[in-house]
C-alpha cells in the first residue's frame, strides 16, 4: 500500500520531473501505479533512480516507458 508524500517533500525529488501530465479538467494529480515515468534513452539511469526514490517513499513502483522524443506526447504520466 502506498503512502502520501507531502508537497514539500515531492519538490525535493531529484531528478525533478520536467512535466507531470494529467487530463484536462482535473486540478489534482494522484500518483498511482498506472502512471509511467516517460524518458528518452539518454536519461535511462535518471528514470530508474526516480522510480526507485518514488518506490522507497510511497511503496508505488511506477513503470518505465522509453520514447524517442518527448515532444507532443499525449500520454498521462511523469516525464
What this model shows, in words?
The protein has helices at 7-10, 44-58, and strands at residues 20-21, 37-40, 64-67, 77-78. α2 (44-58) links the parallel β2 (37-40) and β3. Strands 1-4 form a two-stranded antiparallel ribbon. By secondary structure, the protein is an alpha+beta fold. The protein has two helices and four strands.
Provide the descriptors you would attach to this structure in a database record.
alpha+beta, 24% helix, 79 residues, two-stranded parallel ribbon, two-stranded antiparallel sheet
Strand order of the largest sheet: 1-4
Oligomer: single chain
In DSSP terms (H or I, runs of 4 or more residues), the helix count works out at 2
- Count the E strands: 4
Q: What's the main sheet like?
A: 2 strands, antiparallel
Radius of gyration: 12 Å
Strand content: 15-25%
Round the mean pLDDT to the nearest integer and report it.
75
String of helices and strands? HEEHEE
Q: What sort of overall outline do the alpha carbons produce when their principal axes are compared?
A: flat
Q: What level of helicity do the residues show?
A: 10-25%
User: Which consecutive residue ranges, at least 5 long each, have pLDDT under 50?
Assistant: 1-8
For the terminal residues, how far apart are their CA atoms? 24 Å
SSE class: alpha+beta
Amino acid at each position: 500500500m502506498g503512502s502520501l508524500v507531502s508537497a514539500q517533500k515531492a519538490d525535493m525529488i531529484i531528478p525533478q520531473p520536467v512535466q507531470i501530465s494529467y487530463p484536462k479538467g482535473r486540478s489534482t494529480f494522484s500518483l498511482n501505479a498506472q502512471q509511467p515515468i516517460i524518458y528518452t534513452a539518454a536519461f535511462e539511469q535518471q528514470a530508474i533512480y526516480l522510480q526507485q526514490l518514488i518506490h522507497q517513499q510511497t511503496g508505488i513502483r511506477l513503470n518505465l516507458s522509453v520514447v524517442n522524443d518527448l515532444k507532443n506526447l499525449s500520454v498521462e504520466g511523469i516525464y
